[in-house]
Amino acid sequence: MTLFPALLSGFLLGASLIIAIGAQNAFILRMGLIRNHIFWLCLVCSLSDALLIALGVAGMGAVVSGHPAMLKVVALAGAVFLAIYAALSFKRALRPEALLPTERKPMQLRSALAMCLALTFLNPHVYLDTVILIGAVSSTQEGEARIAFAAGAMAASFAWFFGLGYGARLLAPLFARRLSWQVLDFLIAAVMAALSLSLLREVFA
Q1: What is the pLDDT of residue 99?
Q2: Inter-residue contact 120 to 48 (CB < 8 Å)
Q3: How many angstroms separate the CA atoms of 127 and 64, rounded?
Q4: What is the rounded CA–CA span in Å between residue 77 and residue 28?
């Protein structure tokens, strides 16, 4: 029981950082609605977070924070990628496809995984949140407590992504209407465009 406070602290911090409208979450939500490769996408997102959390707890946060130029390169690449994704989402919103999730054209697994990895690792904020912030907070823990803290943060990622991916199907009745898909894709386009502009401001600030 002595490790439970550290485990809970890590879980709550991880949850507070990941539960937000972002590129990764928007993608998982949309793929969950069309029931396309959900298990593998959720697993990749969760394992990616777990890897970054482990690196942060191991001390990589100090290395990353000491090389701001590296984060700017990632930010620029991420801004371009998100701008393209926003344009594609906007195009889908203007010309929505079929109404039911089972009728919508699925994405190939390889393409879906590539998109998922790009949305994860081309976002510099993921390094700030998982590697630097979680790594810094974990430094207040010692020994097994630090491991428990990291495990809690990782557990939050697994719980969130699998909950979001598989929970999306509960919204299926709502998304049986064309308008719902249009609204979702417009929102995704807006989120991606806003994130892209935010990254560009950071690069050229």
Answers
A1: 43
A2: yes
A3: 8
A4: 21
Backbone φ/ψ region at 35: left (φ over 0), alpha (ψ -120 to 50), beta:
left
Q: How far apart are CA 122 and CA 77, in angstroms?
A: 6
DSSP state, residue 101: G
Domain residue spans in the chain? 4-204
Separation CA 187–CA 174 (nearest Å): 16
pTM of the full structure? 0.77
Cα–Cα distance for residue pair 153/67, rounded to 1 Å: 25
Segment 113-154, tens digit of pLDDT: 999 999 888 887 788 778 877 877 787 677 888 889 899 999
The C-alpha atoms of residue 118 and residue 140 are separated, in whole angstroms, by: 32
Picking from 136, 144, 112, 129, the residue whose alpha carbon sits closest to that of residue 59 is: 136
Please provide the DSSP assignment of 152-189 as one string. Answer: HHHHHHHHHHHHHHHHGGGGTTGGGSHHHHHHHHHHHH
- φ/ψ of 143, rounded to 5, equals 60, -130
CB 89 within 8 A of CB 185: yes
